[in-house]
From TrEMBL:
Transmembrane segments: none annotated. PROSITE patterns: SSB. It comes from the Bacteria. The keyword Membrane does not apply. Plays an important role in DNA replication, recombination and repair. Binds to ssDNA and to an array of partner proteins to recruit them to their sites of action during DNA metabolism. One of its GO terms (biological process) is DNA repair. It comes from Clostridium tepidiprofundi DSM 19306. This is Single-stranded DNA-binding protein. Homotetramer. SUPFAM superfamilies: Nucleic acid-binding proteins. Keywords: DNA damage, DNA recombination, DNA repair, DNA replication, DNA-binding. It holds the Pfam family SSB. A motif (Important for interaction with partner proteins) lies at residues 129-134.
Amino acid sequence: MNKVVLIGRLTKDPDLRFIPGSGTAVTTFTIAVDRRFKKEGQPEADFIPVVVWGKIAENTANYMSKGRLIGISGRIQTRSYEAKDGTRRYVTEVVADEVQFLDYGNKQASNENENNNFDYGPDVTPVDDEDIPF
């Protein structure tokens, strides 16, 4: 069984590319995952490279940015390639099947939501929480 679930913060903005010919979207990013045990009070993290394909890749690139908290589920994959200098390079990465945005948006939008000044647009009617019976 090869299954991995990680929660961490993006170390930089996701990189969205499209495969020539097929046009399939692929997004790559690295997440910093805190280690459970810390050495001498110093926080430690592992930096895990992640690859996402298809529509999930496009959404991740469009809605997530550096420093945002993200949850991913997928599998560990290894591959190798020949570098420009002729040496063989090996890569271990997580290929994500599921992505959860645990922290998203920008501060300006979040402040607008807190002040109830958000413009919902013509197709959305806001619901007052007081009207919900549960």
